[in-house]
Amino acid sequence: MRDAATRQGPGRMLIAVYGIFAIAATSRSAVQLITRFDQAPVAYLLSAFAAVVYVLATITLALNARRVALVACAIELIGVVTVGFVSLFVPRAFPDATVWSTFGIGYGFIPLVLPVLGLLWLRKTA
What domain of life does the native source organism fall in (predicted)? Predict the structure, then answer.
């Protein structure tokens, strides 16, 4: 049972939410990069980066690859806090929103809460 620690109980819901965000962020960034890259390249590249982080977190949590999951969740938390502050205080830096803009307000602040829950779950199941 130890091998499946991150995907037991509440971990299943955490992985499901990460999976939903991986699909949503990947789809959104793909459309943005293909159709409007010249309008806000930094914002759209950040959305693509967020998508990669969500995919990585989903897979590593599901596979119980704890160290990589820890790094993915930490990068996600640093990213959402950094982009959140920059988007608040230097709004010109992001002419269009990213998944992490204003701490994930467009997604009900789930991008801010999700890495915290991921890190707490990794600690609890350690």
Answer: Bacteria
